[in-house]
């Protein structure tokens, strides 16, 4: 609970510090993510990955013509598919953790340098905190021990494009999430990984 309160306090400071510069923009995003648990520092490998729906909300807080702070609140399920042998049969078991993920991204873009079609390209990077909502295994759907209910800290890197479609500002966003925290009920050197593709709308 202290971790959640601290994160909300940081977000409040960001909102106050940037409000005087310009009007913030709010938006919604949803899409899909391919996730995995893998060795810390390893390149993304999704041979045993799982597919997840992801969705959330964001706010753009301009701090200059080129830089924006973008806090978000997103839902994503991260997990790993693992083949085990039981009673001389191969059983594929999914280990899944549902997260409420709160990234605070630094976005680099220039709204004044649009090409003739109105495209705006941008880069994102920043830390995130992901709070466990629930965890489970499939196909048995048995809840994992309470020790897995913890916070995952990590970093997000991505790029995207914003373009007007039918009068609305639409964003297409590609990201990679790199977890930095240990995962309970998994090997000590495993961390979360996720690649997501989302579509968002600026309200």
Sum up the structure in keywords.
63% strand; elongated; 203 residues; 8-stranded antiparallel β-barrel; 1 helix; 8 strands; Porin; mainly beta
Order of the strands making up the biggest sheet: 1-2-3-4-5-6-7-8
CATH topology: Porin
SSE succession: HEEEEEEEE
Count of discrete alpha- or pi-helical segments spanning 4 or more residues: 1
- Named CATH architecture: Beta Barrel
Count of the separate structural domains: 1
User: Tally of extended strands?
Assistant: 8
Give me the Rg, rounded: 19 Å
Estimated share of beta-strand residues: over 45%
Distance between the termini: 31 Å
The poorly predicted ranges are 85-89
Rounded mean pLDDT is: 82
- Helix/strand/pairing class, anyone? mainly beta
- What summary fits the major beta sheet? 8 strands, antiparallel, barrel
Give the helix proportion (percent range): under 10%
Bulk shape: elongated
- CATH hierarchy, class: Mainly Beta
């Amino acid at each position: 609970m202290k971790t959640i309160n601290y994160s909300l306090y940081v977000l409040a400071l960001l909102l106050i510090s940037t409000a005087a510069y310009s009007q913030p923009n709010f938006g919604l995003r949803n899409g899909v993510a391919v996730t995995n648990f893998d060795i810390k520092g390893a390149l993304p490998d999704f041979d045993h990955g799982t597919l997840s729906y992801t969705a959330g909300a964001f706010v753009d807080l301009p701090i200059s013509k080129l830089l924006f702070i973008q806090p978000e609140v997103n839902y994503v399920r991260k997990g790993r598919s693992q083949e085990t042998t039981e009673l001389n049969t191969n059983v594929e078991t999914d280990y899944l953790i549902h997260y409420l993920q709160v990234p605070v991204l630094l976005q680099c873009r220039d709204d004044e340098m649009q090409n003739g079609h109105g495209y705006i390209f941008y880069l994102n990077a920043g830390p995130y905190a992901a709070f466990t909502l629930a965890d489970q295994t499939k196909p048995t759907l048995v809840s994992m021990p309470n020790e897995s209910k913890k916070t995952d800290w990590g970093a997000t890197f991505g790029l995207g494009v914003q373009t007007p479609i039918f009068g609305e500002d639409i964003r297409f966003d590609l990201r990679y999430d790199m977890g930095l925290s240990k995962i309970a009920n998994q090997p000590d050197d495993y961390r979360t990984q996720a690649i997501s593709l989302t579509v968002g709308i600026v309200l």
